[in-house]
Amino acid sequence: MLDYMADARLRLGQADCLVVPRGGAQFAQLVASESLAMVSSVQTQCSLGFDLSAIGCLQDTGKIFFSKQWGFRLNTLNDLVGMSERICIFEADFQNGDRRDIPAIQNFKLRATRPGVIHAVMASWE
């Protein structure tokens, strides 16, 4: 999006134009949900007798974003539990920002605030 915004500012904007919204921030939080685990891992009844439990370490709950078109949203999960604080992982400046402002690598430390299994990292924008 920063590429599109930079191009629009360059080609379409006046020197004193304002971009609305001026920016945004992406947040991340560790979450647990047995319902989420059910839709993102191999279920026993689907494994035809094979022990596929180790595949769970490879599960990619991030691909669940496709499920929006099928009606699945995280805010509909009654058992969604925050397992950490919600932290800001990126701030974008749409007024002056550029792709080069995004660090290639960043590390974040999140401490679980309760015991249990973490099923996903939930990302959101403000």
Overview in brief:
This is Protein arginine N-methyltransferase 7 (TbPRMT7). By secondary structure, this protein is of the alpha+beta class.
Describe this structure in words.
This is Protein arginine N-methyltransferase 7 (TbPRMT7). It comes from Durusdinium trenchii. The protein has 126 residues and is α+β, with helices and mostly antiparallel strands. 14% of the residues lie in helices and 20% in strands. The protein has helices spanning 2-12, 34-40, and strands spanning 23-32, 81-82, 87-93, 120-125. Strands 1, 2, 3 and 4 form a 4-stranded antiparallel β-sheet that branches. The longest helix is centred in the N-terminal third of the chain and has 11 residues, at 2-12. The radius of gyration is 19 Å and the shape is elongated.
Helix content: 10-25%
What is the typical, i.e. mean, pLDDT?
81
Q: Distance N terminus to C terminus?
A: 15 Å
Tally of contiguous helical segments? 2
> Structural class, please?
alpha+beta
Total beta-strand segments: 4
Listing every helix as H and every strand as E from the N terminus to the C terminus, the arrangement reads HEHEEE
Strand content: 15-25%
Reported for the largest beta sheet, the result is: 4 strands, antiparallel
**Could you say which overall geometry the principal axes of the C-alpha atoms support?**
elongated
* Unreliable parts: none
User: Radius of gyration in whole Å, from Cα?
Assistant: 19 Å
Protein name: Protein arginine N-methyltransferase 7 (TbPRMT7)
